[in-house]
């Protein structure tokens, strides 16, 4: 047995859909208001995942209007391999609706989107029948045959199941042909603490579906398990032929009921079969797989912005236009030119990466000679903390709901300065009553020492406070003119 740590994809990586092609695994997640959309990962062992791209990385593929709110945008994809090609279907709830893209190489390029204007709802799934019929199943749970090459519906949308428990929000369907049955896996109960996974089976893809007598087959509702909100899963076979589930869960910190700050993350759980029904093991923080594991790749701490395009892990708010975001204007620097004036604005120019560790450190060297810019920890427009430099002044700003204030400020020489944030998870329960972590901003002095300027409570940047479907993203932004960033360091401290 080889030990591994869940989540296998920490940070804002919800709604995982996985497929296997020979020895290779590919996984896709939701991306909401961020561009590019739908991050894609590769693995050989289901445990270590490397991002290979984003399925929607061209403006022609993904339109997120500047007035589309946080937690709108791109929801729950399904990723499948069929007939020598990868197929990815998803929903952009901010205008484009359901759409499908294909690729021969999952690292891209992916096709322009094939729209499915007549397909209602969210969470589309694709499954091919032996006769070549492509069944598209959506939240509800309803189904229709489609032509995946044109996006046309080839029949009427029919309700095929209402869920295993009569709970709210039967959604996230994935239809799998395993052995003699078509298994319809769904999530229900909503994506918060009541989340659960149920399953039904039928001898044809269209039903009639017989519910599993043990539904829900996975839920952590009403427990004090450290992983909560478990749901929205997909099934895959491991390298040894055993069955596994990828699913979303959250790690609330800071007492009961807890606040989770990293968003919904991707976990891996074992599946066994009893009487033709899957039995899902615990998505435990400390878990193991029965095949050998090589150490995973360690991502570099520093991005020097030395490439003409940004690494695929960088995400921008809603769009990424050359005139607002470039590494070629001053080679080796990320130059951000302001549009919105602050992180309160939907059109702010912000480029960040998911916070993936409960404790972490970020630093960036900013040249403020061309404008005002800063380093932020962002949940949404109404929940963000940042440190900003403007000529000769540095200030720490907190926005929580309707309240916004400058919590600290200091004058600095008008030259490039290192801005920093340390996110520190609270380790003990006594500490944890006030929240899961603190978010500490400061600057690096010319002699390399770090001067803390403000310590802020992390729970206000949690999903339990802010709502929504996302998690924290740490990144840089421009508030006025052009702010230029020489490098950005992200150091895990867990
Ligand atoms: C998604 C739904 C869900 O479409 O949350 O947890 C929604 N599941 O299936 C957004 O991620």
Through-space gap between termini: 24 Å
- Content of β-strand: over 45%
Shape, principal axes of CA atoms:
globular
Please, what is the average pLDDT?
Answer: 97
CATH class of the largest domain: Mainly Beta
CATH superfamily heading of the largest domain: Glycosyl hydrolase domain, family 43
The biggest beta sheet, please? Answer: 15 strands, antiparallel
Family: Belongs to the glycosyl hydrolase 43 family.
Active site: 15 (proton acceptor), 171 (proton donor)
GO molecular function: hydrolase activity, hydrolyzing O-glycosyl compounds
Protein name: Beta-xylosidase
Topology:
Layout: E1 2-5, E2 17-21, E3 24-28, E4 34-35, E5 37-43, E6 50-56, E7 74-82, E8 85-92, E9 97-103, E10 114-115, E11 125-128, E12 134-138, E13 142-147, E14 152-153, E15 158-159, E16 171-178, E17 181-188, E18 196-202, E19 210-211, E20 218-219, E21 228-237, E22 243-250, E23 265-274, E24 277-280, E25 286-289, E26 302-303, E27 315-317, E28 325-326, E29 334-337, E30 349-354, E31 360-367, E32 371-380, E33 383-390, E34 393-400, E35 403-411, E36 417-425, H1 429-432, E37 437-444, E38 450-457, H2 463-466, E39 473-492
Antiparallel strand pairs: 1-25, 2-3, 3-5, 4-27, 5-6, 7-8, 8-9, 9-10, 11-12, 12-13, 13-14, 13-15, 16-17, 17-18, 18-19, 18-20, 21-22, 22-23, 23-24, 26-39, 27-30, 28-29, 29-39, 30-39, 31-36, 31-39, 32-33, 32-39, 33-34, 34-35, 36-37, 37-38
Bound molecules: (Z)-L-Arabinonhydroximo-1,4-lactone.
